[in-house]
Amino acid sequence: MKTKLDIAKNWLPRYTGTQIDEFGDYILLTNFHNYLNSFAEKFNCEIKGIGKPMQASTNKDGLTIVNFGMGSANAATIMDLLIARHPKGILFLGKCGGLKRSTELGHFILPIAAIRGEGTSNDYMLPEVPALPSFKLHKFVSDKLIQRKMEYRSGVVYTTNRRVWEWDSKFKKYLRKLGAIGIDMETATIFVVGYTNQIARGALLLVSDLPMIPDGIKTEDSDREITSNFTDMHLQIGIEAMTEVGTKGEEIKHFTF
User: What is the pTM (predicted TM-score) of this model?
Assistant: First the structure.
């Protein structure tokens, strides 16, 4: 295996238990088992990769969902491995912490960009290269949100490789200076590695906690409540948006900066 593509073709089935030709043209990425399970139940399709690092399921319309795990390293891995299939579009359905007073629990964030605080993306592009989504893909997502009259925000999110930072007042002060609307662990990586691999990509984030205040830090109980009240809608919007992209047959072109 001499090239990146050679490796990806060998590793994608090994990581996911799914053959390359079993992946659809459009892909939803998540890091939560319940999204994958709900998708498989909704479309009565098999979950492959049980016992593997990642699991995947594909419906009859050619839409695949992949649970890739948590964090920027895993996000980079799946975005690299998917060059073996080279999908026409990828949408990340993730959760994030709200950093502004205007972001409330259950709101959606459609990020216009992500600040690269995770470090992983530096192995792909120079630090000054912005982490951006494919805006045409985001238009399909925003249309679905507007049709449902859903509350959503658009702004810049900060991506970090730190999972436990909510106690760190110095880091919180830094976040306030940045003016970011939300914080997560994967979005910037997905945007940059997608750009590097010439894969159209986007993200729809669900505000699951308000970590800048002590009472807003995520707990098992609060996360269970968010999951119960909002994740079905989160998944459904992702399904409809990516299915519509495929149905309309609109190519999401990749441009270099």
Answer: 0.94
Which residues does 42 contact at the CB level (< 8 Å), separation at least 6? 239
3-state secondary structure 201-241: EEEEEEEEECCCCHHHCCCHHHHHHHHHHHHHHHHHHHHHH
Alpha carbons 257 and 221: distance in angstroms, whole number: 44
Q: Which residue has the higher pLDDT, 148 or 247?
A: 148
pLDDT of the residue at 101: 81
pLDDT tens sequence across 118-159:
999 999 999 999 999 999 899 999 999 999 988 899 999 999
Q: Which two tokens stand for residue 169?
A: 């007042």
Question: Hey, what CATH topology would domain 4-248 get?
Answer: Rossmann fold (3.40.50)
Could you state, in order of their start, the residue ranges of all structural domains in the chain? 4-248
